[in-house]
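Dear support,

Our group has been running a series of protein-ligand predictions, and this particular one with dioxothiomolybdenum(VI) ion is the one our PI (initials K.S.) wants archived with full inputs and outputs. We had some confusion internally about which version of the output was final, so please treat the block below as the authoritative record. The input we submitted was:
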Amino acid sequence: MESIGQPIDRLDGRLKVTGGARYTAELDLPDLVYGVIVGSTVPSGRIRQVDAAPAERAPGVLKVLTHENAPRLLPIPAELSGIRLLGDGGVGEEYLPLQAAQVYFAGQPVAFVVARTFEQARHAATLVRVEYDAVAPKLVMNAGSMATRPDKFLGRPDEALQATRGGDAAAVRGVFDASPVRVSHTYTTPIEHHSPLEMSATIALWVRMPDRASAQLTLYDTCRNLKGNQTILAQVFGLPTANVRIVSQFIGGAFGAKGFQWNTPILCALAAKATGRTVKLVLTRQQMFLLAGQRAATEQGYAIGAEAGGEIRAVLHTTRTHSSAISGYIEPCGRTTKILYSLPHLEISHELVRLNLPTPCPMRAPGEAPGTWAQETAMDELAEKLGMDPLTFRLRNYADVDPENGKPWSSKHLKECYTRGAELIGWDRRPSQPRRMREGQYLVGYGMATTIYPAGQRGAAARIILSADGSAVVRSATHDQGNGAYTILAQVAADALGLPLARVRFELGDSDFPQAPPAGGSATTVSVSAAIEQASTQAKRQLMELAVAEVSSPLYSAKLKDIGASNGRLFLRSDPGRGEEYTAILRRTQRKHITADGEAKPGPEREAFSFSSFGAVFAKVRVDPELGTVRIAQVAGVYDVGRVINPKTTRSQLHGGIGFGIGMALTEETIYDSRTGRAVIRDLADYHIPSMADTPLITVETLDIADPQIPGPGARGLGEIGIVGTAAAITNAVYHATGIRYRSLPLTPAKMVVPTAAESRNTATT
Ligand code: MOS
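Confirmed final output from the archive:
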């Protein structure tokens, strides 16, 4: 039976619920010692002096590392561009730990205490005395702040951050000014944190190799970029890449964190080198708000001009966003403005302000999540001005081809998503005027938004080892962030190899395995499936060649193209009764196993077509006008994500993405003190991610239409599309319920109860 399309339970599910799946922090290696970070108390300046002596004398302490005594590291050359994935610089932190006295943000590691027990290390860390020459920090992004205008979003080298369409900037503005119906507003989104359940963690050990001149560095790490981080670690420690091994078999959520050049694994490896011990470092939840990435804050100007009939003429979308003093990563909010609707005149621009705050990085749908919130809110505002239904307005501007380059979509069925989503939420019950629906004390509203996420493919490789007992192990240095990659990649391999799923084991999470890209950009399924297909073709070819060459085989002298493979057996397509089991072929030829390698990279179809997933999100909310609370009555999302490999894990991914969107709309916000740069919100008591009670009814459907231009099963990625559009669907529903337009996320009760003057002026009932 085909395994693709079946709602297979997670193959690692039993291990996870029984505690058998060991996450990095749980690994109990022999002779472990523990490291604890001492963070800077100032956001900007230089370390004048460190007094480590009291800490060094504390019980159990093995070493206190500072910038004065830590082993030296080699710099990372700019040309390691596979690692410098995104932004105008790299992604992650562009400095190396404990190499200099410079302080860039509050919380930056300024000392690292290693002790026999965690408690001893934590105690000693409180004894390290650091004095600073502080300088005035830059902590807020405002009109006076120095901004740069980076050109390129290097995550996709073709993605210009400053762009116009249909004329220069002045011409586009002229078209906007001349448009009969216009909206133009500023939308702001806060800093957010990925907040995976599992904190970032590393265990590092060095082993001197008897047969090698240098040492081997092994890291157990919460890492979703094995090959990239292997290269970084090798570079900074001056090792051949093969002498660094990173193992990461289970990851408890990442969402964009855990993938880049963060200082903490380097710090842990540094301490293991300095002490000659196996060192474990587990970040605290508070440190996750400082040392593991975040979504940058944005201020977006969004202006749309349309004809009275609803045809969009011009869009101007400006983004001002921040990064840290040690990163040029930029949140690319303008990306979806280019492609979501058909429009002839466009200007997008991005400005970056560097602040003395922790470093931003991609977080689930970087750019698309805050970008579509502004875009789809402005669309809602314009629909109302036009007196059009928001869904009708979107259909009026439907992009039949990619509006950016005129290329056909590889596959696009967004109209079906709109239709089905509207049915699921009961869109026809929605009165066109806001503040017209009540259920008891609650104001009730309906909102919708479009969602989109690119369907990328990156180079990947896989190896198959098919054993004489008829089972197969498939390996690739890819990652399972908790999303189900173990399961769905085994399903792909089983079908590609013609084996029952129970005979296939997929192994990942080890940098010794064949090349795979970082688990990001919703590209793992496409990229690794393509490599598995290639390796499977090789494996089956080897079996066929063995069979046709052997006089005693029923397939003797058959042509390879006439042979099929399924259920562990080769057979003649024209006469399926004639065939031979894989096990019989290997036994007869006295092989314990065969090994096949496959490699795949984006093909010429990537030039001919544009690749995206699509969807439509609808929300119904209940707002308590007295308390300012928003409760979700229902979110319904319908998605066109290509072939669905596993309906169960697919639903979980999209459901989780919608949960992210609910948090983005209503609760999630990180605040740093604007004088000290220290995190004010820094744990899950104050950083509110939606709980079960906040997510009562989430309805997810997929169209399950295979993308004919995607190799293998024709599945597009779906890790990130669930968040895109969700926040706008919810806040548009809040507008529909209340008649008040809030243009600053999240919509907390405080904002809802006391709207600003500008928000009050937008009250539809006044
Ligand atoms: Mo996604 S945050 O681009 O992995």
